[in-house]
Design brief:
The protein is α+β, with helices and mostly antiparallel strands. The chain has helices at 7-26, 113-118, 165-175, 205-218, and strands spanning 41-49, 70-73, 80-86, 92-99, 109-112, 127-136, 145-146, 155-162, 182-189, 192-202, 223-226.
Length: 231
């Protein structure tokens, strides 16, 4: 037989629920406004990546070096400086965002092998961490380039070109976090297949330039060209 909860028990449970919601809300990741310079502090799950990606290009275009103090994040612009503290032991490391990821559910930031080692993350693989944002290296901002002979559309924005399809797929996955129209165009040049990662297509140059400028501010290399031209 189902029995109704006494009124005082019901009030207690509702109060407990309200406290739980407030706690989880306070732990939700906070946004960081680069222009306003506001310091953000949030609680997330960190993981790490290393040898299997060594020497491959990151989403920012830099070559991944697992011994450098870098990290991958899904939202922060490249060049964002982060201080990451392992909640289990209080150890901290400072790293800079130069890649996108992680792409595994339940993980929020990927540290390079060297950065993860500093906070004893290697053995456990993942750990809850506190992340604080400490500004940005503005040198990561890119100037948009436009192909000189482009006059009529449709237009596309090329963000990368690779002879290794894996590198192209990784970059497309990173771009797809914010740009649903990212795609890979395969082109054969002198017997070699190149995989060009692009965003588009755009009928108007204005729309292409607006997206390209946004990409440049995030730290992506952006080249505006005619959609059907290979570069």
């Amino acid at each position: 037989m189902n029995r109704a909860l006494p009124q005082d028990h019901f009030v207690f449970l509702m109060a407990l629920y309200s406290l739980l919601v407030a706690f989880l809300s306070s732990c939700a990741p906070a946004k960081y406004d680069i222009q306003q310079g506001k310091i953000a502090k949030f609680y997330v799950v960190a993981s790490w990546y290393g040898p299997e990606f060594q020497g491959r290009p990151t989403a920012s275009g830099e070559t991944f070096d697992m011994n450098a103090m870098t990290c991958a994040h899904k939202e922060y612009p490249f060049g964002t400086r982060l201080r990451v503290t392992n909640s289990a032991n209080g150890k901290s490391v400072e790293c800079i965002v130069n890649d996108r990821g992680p792409f595994v559910k339940g993980r929020d930031i990927d540290l390079s092998y060297a950065a993860a080692s500093k906070i004893d993350l290697i053995g456990s693989g993942t750990a809850p961490v506190v992340v604080e944002v400490h500004g940005r290296d503005a040198s990561y901002i890119r100037t948009v380039k436009v192909q000189s002979n482009v006059k009529k559309g449709p237009f596309a924005i090329q963000v990368g070109s690779f002879s290794d399809s894996i590198n192209a797929v990784r970059l497309k996955s990173a771009l797809r976090l914010d740009y649903a129209n990212a795609y890979i165009q395969e082109t054969l040049v002198n017997g070699t297949t190149f995989y060009r990662v692009r965003i588009g297509n755009f009928d108007q140059m204005k729309a292409a330039m607006e997206t390209a400028e946004k990409l440049g501010q995030e730290g992506y290399p952006a080249l505006v060209l005619k959609a059907d031209i290979g570069i």
